[in-house]
Amino acid sequence: MACPIGVQAADDSEDRAAIEAQAAAFSRAYVSGETDTLMAIYAPDASIVPTNRPILKGEEKIRQYWTPRDGAKWHPVRHEITSEELTVHGDVATDIGYFEGASANDDGEERAFRGAYLITWRKIAGVWRIQHDIWNSLKVPAGD
Question: How are the residues of the chain apportioned to helix, strand and coil, as percentages rounded to the nearest 5?
Answer without folding.
Answer: 25, 45, 30
